[in-house]
Amino acid sequence: MPDKSRKPEWTPENAGEEFNASVRPGATSNIRSSTSSDAELPPLPELTVAEYRAGVLACDRTLLARAITLIESNLPRQAALARELVQQLLPRSGNSIRIGITGVPGAGKSSFIEVLGNRLLERGHKLAVLAVDPSSSRSYGSILGDKTRMATIARHPDCFIRPSPSGGTLGGVSRKTRETILLCEAAGFDVILVETVGVGQSEIAVRALVDFFLLLTLTGAGDELQGFKKGVMELADAVLVHKADGDNRQLAATVRSDCERILHYFAPATTGWQTPVLVASSLENSGIAEFWEVVELFRKTTTASDVFAARRGEQLHDWMHSLVWEQLQEEFHRHPQVEQQLPELERAVAAGELTATEAASRLINAFRVVRPDPPHPDRNLEQR
Ligand SMILES: Nc1nc2c(ncn2[C@@H]2O[C@H](COP(=O)(O)OP(=O)(O)OP(=O)(O)O)[C@@H](O)[C@H]2O)c(=O)[nH]1
Ligand SMILES: [Mg+2]
Fold this sequence. Notes:
Elements: H1 49-57, H2 61-72, H3 76-89, E1 97-103, H4 109-122, E2 127-132, H5 140-149, H6 151-155, E3 159-162, H7 170-186, E4 191-197, H8 202-207, E5 212-217, H9 223-227, H10 230-235, E6 238-241, H11 248-263, E7 277-279, H12 288-304, H13 307-334, H14 336-350, H15 356-368, H16 379-383
Parallel strand pairs: 1-4, 1-5, 2-3, 2-4, 5-6, 6-7
Helix pairs in contact: 1-2, 1-3, 2-3, 2-7, 14-15
Bound molecules: guanosine-5'-triphosphate and magnesium ion.
Magnesium ion is lined by residues 109-110, 146, 195.
């Protein structure tokens, strides 16, 4: 309702009441200033699962980002809301190709994603780029670096970039990434790229999340050794010799045949698929189209043989089991009887006073003692 007491400073001559204005309090802003700390800001209003769901399905980027933040939260109440949201969105997920990209730090993963991403966006794909990196080595600077490496796609309306969830164990980070993938798919993103630094166990975790796994390797001295790490090559559906430009071009051809020779000894990472070795340069935009042709051929071949769907099924099956183990492990370590007996049993085993079998059996028996009030994350939610 217009408030007659408020007149704008300027109105046309003989203006009627329609020019009177009312002033309302502003909506709570979602935009957080980089100079103020979170502690100073009022919390955003809580949303219901239905509101999150509608926002994600409408591909409202603010709500998608908030839904992902919900998934990344470690608070029990948020976790219960997130579980419900993911369950509701599950039927709308799955319609994408999920690609993992690994390589040593500086292999050019982000630059490759930028060039490939531009190509895909030009062709009408909707692209989500996620990162998995549980290592604390990743500084704020390198995340900023990613943003500049992926500057063009970051500004594109059909591209959504989400850095790695901060902190937490590898298991936690990959669970959050898995659920983030489902949300992005429900929002309509049809190509999901997951970048991971090729150190530690993160490649194995990402392999378990994706349909297609790409290893970027380099020609430079010393890098071959890292790229050739047997374990990682065995997981790859394609190996790509990157930065094949300038003086590196010749060397790239040599590295390519070396890789082919090594791959010859491995069982293929995907049944019925021969892992190819490609050569590309993001700097010169060469080999990128060829890479995408390989992905499309992979999708066609594995869909026809049903390997594509079978892998996704297996991944879900394994995921369920790992969630059970994680939860049990957590409960085991939190159990008061276990907590009480563990230090002494560890000492006795290490000192050779007790066999490991006997100690394990005592701990399991201690764990089986039912606690009067086991904490349950859903309890508060159910009682609301
Ligand atoms: N010559 C050449 N340099 C490249 C190419 N692609 C990337 N670079 C350079 O390699 C460096 C690392 O690139 P990034 O894309 O940040 O590499 P990254 O693998 O994402 O690095 P992290 O995220 O830190 O692991 C940058 O200085 C790039 O400019 C390429 O095709 N050729
Ligand atoms: Mg990067």
